[in-house]
Amino acid sequence: MKAKKDQITGAALVLVGLVSACLISQFETPFTAAYPGPKLLPGIAVFGLIVCGAGTFVNGCRQKEESKALMSKAGMIRIAVSFAVLCGYVLAMKYVGFVIASMVVLYVLTTYFSKASNLPTKPWARVLFSVAVSLIVYGMYVPLFGMTLPGGLLFD
Amino acid sequence: MIGYIPYIVSQFLIPMNLILMVVGTFVGIVFGAIPGLSGTMAVMLFMPLTYTMDHATAIIFLLSLWIGGCSGAFIGSVLLGIPGSASAVATCWDGHPMAQKGQASKALAIGMTASFTGTFFSALAAMLLAEKVADFAFAMGAWEYAALCLVAMTMVLAISKGNMFKGLASSCIGLLFACVGYSPIDAELRFTFGNMYLLSGLGMIVVLTGIFAVSHILVTFGKGFSPAPEVDGKGLKGFGLGIQDFKEEMGNIIRSFLIGLGIGFLPGMGSGLSNLVAYSSAKNASKHPEEYGNGAAGGIWAPEVANNAAIGGAMIPMAALGIPGDSTTALLIGALTIHGLEMGPMVFANSGDVVYLMFTTVMAVAAIVLLMQALGKRWFPYILKVPSVYMYPALLVICLASAYVDSGNLYKCGMMMAFCAVGVAMHFGGLPTSPLILAFILGPTLEKNMLKAFQYSGTWTSFFTRPVSGVLMVIALICIFSPIIRAILQRLKGTIGKERG
Questions:
Q1: Is residue A40 domain-resident?
Q2: Number of domains composing chain A
Q3: Can you give the residue range of the structural domain that contains B204?
Q4: B136 at A interface, C-beta within 8 A
Q5: Residue A147 has pLDDT above 80, yes or no
Q6: Is it the case that residue B308 has pLDDT exceeding 80?
Q7: Within an 8 Å CB–CB cutoff, is residue B456 touching chain A?
Q8: Distance between CA B348 and CA B257 in Å, rounded?
Q9: Residue B393 contacts A, CB cutoff 8 Å
């Protein structure tokens, strides 16, 4: 039997609640009725998570039909690829700095978004856009508002 | 209040403040107009930019983004039939049919005038009322503050259409995130796993931008971008509205204004609810309710006045109690804390000049929005045609730059990606994000006051035996159990109906 979406969500919430409960039990300050201390708020949150998780799970069991899928498998792959590109962007910023990493990631993302969505764009427009946005964002944060963005280990 | 006028005028005369007010308003309108983006997202993304500004400049910029975002939401509703945000849902029902009848100019003019009316006069009301509310708040203790925080968090759940369990679970996740770092009063480390980056907590920008903005963009892409919409921009000339139109709807405007102000004032409520309530009450009070849904002017006036009046309404508890009226005011409270301004009853004594600058800024921005929208009406269709393929990658880069600027290290950028994964998972599980935002921001205040209350009284019953906190706790409990109460009431109605039948 295939698990329903709410059953999975409910089970995940209960699991998070139980793991958090284990972590809370390791706090040193004791929980008393007169003064519950640092366990109070996370305790309430954990109790809520377990109850709501169980409620969601039961709701899932009572559902007669499987709810409609939120998106296609291709959509999920699009999310996973974009997520991986962004994680790579964070790593790249460490070594080559904000400007170069942003130019590359903007070009990669616009190209990927364009191809995956069947919304054609011209390569020169994507290059121009990537360079312009990277420089504008850098200019806005660093010279204009006096903040710092990663310079890159390779250039330090 | 009058004593602060020289300070307020001096702030408005600083060129940088004026430039940021205009730029912030423009960016806010664009974020508000484009379906999928919002003023809240604009405030979230640009908040780190304000860290190096002085607090007055930061307030002016953030408020401009917020007000621009609230006012711009009707543009998508009228021209596309897709609301720019939840606050403009009811505007679609008559705004778009009116535009389809060839009266887009009039529909937009009503939207912008209604936005101005709601924002300007609600800020004026907030200016007059907030200090009075603050005086009352001095009588409130830790019990009442804790109960108010609970009410703010649970009211969002009571009005949410989705599954109550999921809304509550989202709040609980927000509370857990708020617990990371040193606990208040006892200073015990919680959920830090020996990581020094977690000692001071997770950080508002990292959590909220990751869950609210980055994951939202990825999910939108996952669902697939649609091509730039076709918008008929013909006939968008002139202002399109006369004094007579205003006079005809005066009763509707006043009623909607009061609804918006009242709902905005309630902790946890906001423009998302006020526009729906105002629309239905306008329809009920109308002599021609059959025209509603087919392009009735009243159907645009009511939601737009109400959702913008909720701005001033939300600012009253924000300034006087330090309790947010909605998720954007929750963000603003967080941003102001970073700038050293602790909202609450003492703020009028400690930083009265800044509070009145806030109210005046909202009024000034309302006027700038009206001017900008009136002059730039013919360019509205172009805002809606911004290609997603370019817009979203640029926003993603800004999100990650914000995370870096917020903390000064790439570790927080990695954490933002982790919260993006949490946001995507929440989306797949059908968990709403608004309760999480409110719970995450209110969590520390809630915990601090609950623990203080326990220190003073040594028992949980004191939350129910003190009159004000008792009433608030009962309201919070009613909100939590509202689906069960509703179900029981419906069953009772059904049983009575059967017996009578």
A1: yes
A2: 2
A3: 2-224+236-500
A4: no
A5: yes
A6: yes
A7: no
A8: 26
A9: yes
The DSSP call for residue B386 is -
Task: Give the residue from chain A lying closest to B404, CA to CA.
Answer: A149
Q: Do A42 and B410 touch (CB under 8 A)?
A: no
Question: For chain B, what percent of residues have pLDDT higher than 90?
Answer: 26
Residue at A106 is within a domain:
yes
Q: Determine contact, residues B126/B1, Cβ cutoff 8 Å.
A: no
What are the φ/ψ torsions at residue B287 (nearest 5 degrees)? Answer: -75, -20
| Secondary element (H or E) of residue B66 | helix B55-79
Q: Which of B375, B256, B371 is nearest to B313 (CA)?
A: B256
- Quickly tell me which residue has 């972590």 as its tokens: A23
Residue B322 lies in a domain: yes
Euclidean distance between the first and the last CA atom of chain A, given in angstroms as a whole number: 57
- DSSP state letter for B253: H
Q: Is the pLDDT of residue A112 over 90?
A: yes
Residue-range definition of the domain harbouring residue A129: 73-155
CA distances from residue B127 to B56, B130, B207, B313 in whole angstroms, order as listed: 17, 6, 32, 10
A100 CA to chain B: closest CA distance, Å? 12
Least confident of B61-70, B93-102, B214-223, B227-236: B227-236
Q: What percent of chain B has pLDDT over 70?
A: 94
Contact in structure between B158 and B435 (CB atoms under 8 Å): no
Does residue A97 sit in the same domain as residue A128? yes
Report the alpha-carbon distance of residue A139 to residue B233 in Å, rounded: 34
Where residue B82 falls among pLDDT bands split at 50, 70, 90? Answer: confident
| Residue A27 located in a structural domain | yes
Q: Scanning every residue of chain B, which has its alpha carbon at the shortest distance from the alpha carbon of A71?
A: B223
Most A-contacting residue of B170, B176, B391, B422 (CB-CB within 10 A), to test interface:
B176
Residues of chain A with Cβ-Cβ distance to B223 below 8 Å are 70-71, 75
Rounded-to-integer distance, Cα B211 and Cα B436, Å: 9
d(CA B319, CA B264): 13
Assigned domain for B229 exists = no
Residue-wise pLDDT for B394-441, tens only, equals 989 988 998 898 878 899 899 999 999 999 999 988 888 878 888 888
Residue in chain B nearest A52 by alpha carbon: B165
Total domains, chain B: 1
What pLDDT, on the 0 to 100 scale, is given for residue B432?
86
* One domain for residues A31 and A86: no
Please classify residue B12 by burial: count the beta carbons closer than 10 Å to its beta carbon, then call 0-12 exposed, 13-18 middle and 19+ buried.
middle
Task: Give the contacts of B103 (CB within 8 A, at least 6 positions apart).
Answer: B240, B295
CB of A57 within 8 Å of a chain B CB? The answer is no
In whole angstroms, give the CA distance from residue B417 to residue B431: 18
The verdict on B214 touching A (C-beta cutoff 8 Å) is: yes
Assigned domain for B456 exists: yes
In this predicted structure, the answer to whether residue B161 has a pLDDT above a threshold of 60 is: no
Q: Which of B280, B270, B7 is nearest to B152 (CA)?
A: B270
Measured distance CA(B152)–CA(B160) in Å, rounded: 13
How many CB pairs lie under 8 A apart between chains A and B?
A: 207
